[in-house]
Design a protein that fits this description.
Helix content is 0%, strand content 55%. It is mainly β.
Length: 124
Amino acid sequence: MGQIGHHLWVIAEGFIPGRSHGPEPAMTSHETACILNAGDEDAHLEITLYFTDRDPVGPYRETVQARRTRHIRFNDLTDPEPVRRDTEYASVIRSDRPVVVQHSRLDSRQAENALMTTIAHGQA
């Protein structure tokens, strides 16, 4: 299939609400990086988070297997530290293989839920 994607992606917007409405884990408010690795080799990712009021945190290390997709919930990132709730952040995702990144957020703080999704900014 050839190479699809980029090695560097930026999601300038991030925020995980501190509360949720509805059954867990399906309706837990979350941020997700949806990663497509269409290549023939596993992609090793490093995710760094940037904040308005403190130094960056990371890298968080994740792997997306060859010819697979993986949805990485920022809520589940714990090493080097859990991602804080109710805190604005941005993320930079670096990969040793070309990947495609899409960003989504489920905000379920109220019964009328909102799901947002957008393509991240890829850098060649």
